[in-house]
Design a protein that fits this description.
Blueprint: H1 9-17, H2 22-35, H3 44-52, H4 60-70, H5 96-109, H6 122-131, H7 150-170, H8 176-192, H9 197-220, H10 224-240, H11 244-260, H12 264-281, H13 284-300, H14 304-314, H15 332-346, H16 349-358, H17 368-384, H18 388-399, H19 408-421, H20 428-441
C-alpha cells in the first residue's frame, strides 16, 4: 500500500536528546546488539532511511535493539507496525449479536496478547471507529439462557466503580487479572443470558464501562494491543446502549493512547470522533475531555496553532459537575494538567510549567497516579527550560509515589526524566536525584 513519506521526528528527537550523531547512533546500536547476542549490520545510511520515513517498519531484531538502546517502546520512536488480519473486535458487525461475539472473543483472547505496540492505525482503525457512529440496527432477539436481573447488574456496576478508584490510586498493574475476569463474566452474560430491554441497556453500559477500564489498565502497563481490543468492545457496548457520552469517553482514551504511542494523526482522528459523540451527549466534562485529548494530539503532531485552538475549550470543564461515576476525575484542574502536557509537546515550556503547576500535580488532594504522572511532566518541562534544581525537586516528589503505584507507564515517564537530566549529571541536584531514582526504580 502506498503512503506519503513523513520524517520520523520521534527518532530524530531521541537521537538528539542523547547528543548522538547518526554515526554515533550506529556505534551505540552495534554495541547494544552485541550485548543482546546479535551481530547486526548498521550504517548511517540505514539511520537516514529510518529518520526520513523511507523505512517505517524495521525488522524485528532491529526493533528489539532500538527498544533496548533507547529504553522505550518502538512506537514511541515513531515507527509503524503491520496490522494482523484477524484482530478480535474489528470484523464483527455493529449489532447486539456482533457485540456479544466480539465481547466473548476479546475477553478470552486479549489478556494473552502481549504485543507491546498499538497494532491498528490509519484507515483500519478509522473505519472501525466510524462504524460505531452509525445508527444501530434493529434490536436482536433476547439471547437464550438465564435471566439477568437488575440486582446482578448493580453488583457489576459497584464492583467496576471500586476497581476504577483502585486504578486511580494504585495503577493498572495490580488490576489486570481482576478487570479481565469481570469483563469476561459480563461478556458471557451478554452472549448467553436473557434480559429485558431496560436491563439489557444497563448491562451494555456496564460492559462498556468495564471494557473502558480494561483498556485503560492494559494501556497503563504497556499492553497496547490488548488495550485497543478492549476499547473497541467498549465502543460496541456504548453504541448498543445508545450512550454517546460513554462512547466519547472511550474514543478520547483511544486518542490519548495513540498520541502517547507516537501516532498523533490517529490521535487527532479519534479525538474528532470523540468530539462528535460528545456533542450528542450534551455533557460538558466529556466535551472538555475530547478537546483536551485533541489539543494533546495536535501538540504531539507539532501543530501549535491547532493545539492552541482547542485549549480554551478544554479548560471550560466545570470544577465539579454531576455525571456518570466514570467521570469523577474530569475537573478543571485535571484539564489544566492535560493542557500542560499538550503545551509541553509543542515546546511551549513556559506555559506548560504554568499550567502543570496550577493543576493537580504538585498541589492539593488528588489521585496518586495522576499526581505522579503530571509531576514527571512538570519536571521534564523544567529540564527543557534549564531549571535543573527545580526539575530535580519536582522529580523527587514524583519518585515518592513509586512505592505506592504499580504503573509501568509512570515508571517509563520517570525514566524519561532521568534520561533528560543525564546531560547535567555533573551537578549536585542531578546526582542526588539519580541516586534516589536508582533506588526507587530498582
Amino acid at each position: 500500500m502506498a503512503y506519503a513519506r513523513e520524517r520520523n521526528e520521534a527518532l530524530v528527537f531521541q537521537r538528539q536528546l542523547h547528543n548522538w550523531t547518526q554515526e554515533h547512533l550506529c556505534e551505540e546500536f552495534y554495541l547494544k546488539a552485541y550485548e543482546l547476542g546479535m551481530n547486526l549490520p548498521i550504517s548511517p545510511r540505514e539511520v537516514r532511511r529510518w529518520e526520513s520515513g523511507e523505512i517505517r517498519t524495521p525488522r524485528p531484531d532491529y526493533r528489539r535493539v532500538l527498544e533496548a538502546l533507547f529504553g522505550i517502546p518502538i512506537q514511541q520512536l515513531g515507527f509503524h507496525l503491520p496490522v494482523p488480519a484477524n484482530l478480535p473486535g474489528v470484523e464483527q458487525p455493529w449489532t447486539q449479536n456482533g457485540l456479544a461475539d466480539a465481547s466473548v472473543e476479546v475477553a478470552r483472547r486479549a489478556p494473552l496478547d502481549r504485543r507491546n505496540f498499538v497494532v491498528l492505525t490509519g484507515g483500519t482503525l478509522s473505519s472501525s471507529v466510524l462504524a460505531s457512529m452509525r445508527e444501530p440496527e434493529p434490536f436482536v432477539a433476547a439471547l437464550k439462557g438465564g435471566r439477568v436481573t437488575t440486582s446482578l447488574v448493580k453488583t457489576i456496576e459497584k464492583r467496576t466503580d471500586t476497581l476504577r478508584h483502585l486504578d486511580a490510586e494504585s495503577g493498572g498493574g495490580y488490576l489486570l487479572a481482576a478487570v479481565a475476569a469481570d469483563l469476561q463474566l459480563a461478556a458471557e452474560l451478554i452472549k448467553n443470558s436473557s434480559y429485558t430491554g431496560a436491563v439489557g441497556r444497563r448491562l451494555y453500559v456496564a460492559m462498556a464501562e468495564l471494557a473502558a477500564l480494561a483498556g485503560w489498565v492494559y494501556f497503563d502497563v504497556g499492553r497496547h494491543a490488548a488495550a485497543q481490543q478492549y476499547y473497541l468492545v467498549g465502543l460496541r457496548a456504548a453504541h448498543a446502549a445508545r450512550d454517546p457520552a460513554l462512547g466519547s469517553y472511550i474514543l478520547a482514551d483511544m486518542s490519548y493512547q495513540a498520541s502517547l504511542a507516537g501516532q498523533p494523526d490517529d490521535g487527532i482522528n479519534l479525538a474528532h470522533a470523540a468530539l462528535s459523540s460528545a456533542k450528542q451527549s450534551r455533557f460538558p466534562p466529556v466535551h472538555a475531555l475530547a478537546c483536551g485529548r485533541l489539543a494533546l494530539a495536535h501538540g504531539r503532531a507539532g501543530d501549535s496553532k491547532a493545539c492552541a485552538g482547542m485549549i480554551s475549550q478544554a479548560l471550560n470543564a466545570p470544577a465539579k459537575a454531576s455525571g456518570p461515576k466514570w467521570s469523577f476525575w474530569i475537573t478543571q484542574p485535571a484539564m489544566t494538567d492535560l493542557v500542560g502536557t499538550a503545551l509541553l509537546a509543542t515546546g511551549d515550556y513556559v506555559n506548560a510549567i504554568d499550567h502543570l503547576s496550577c493543576g493537580r500535580g504538585p498541589h492539593g488532594k488528588s489521585i496518586a497516579l495522576d499526581r505522579a504522572f503530571y509531576l514527571s511532566q512538570l519536571a521534564i518541562a523544567h529540564v527543557r527550560q534549564r531549571n535543573i534544581e527545580q526539575a530535580c525537586a519536582v522529580g523527587t516528589q514524583a519518585l515518592g509515589f513509586l512505592p505506592h503505584v504499580n504503573s509501568p507507564r509512570i515508571i517509563s515517564e520517570i525514566r524519561g526524566l532521568h534520561r533528560e537530566l543525564t546531560r547535567y549529571q555533573d551537578t549536585q541536584p542531578v546526582r542526588e536525584f539519580a541516586n534516589q531514582a536508582y533506588e526507587k526504580l530498582a
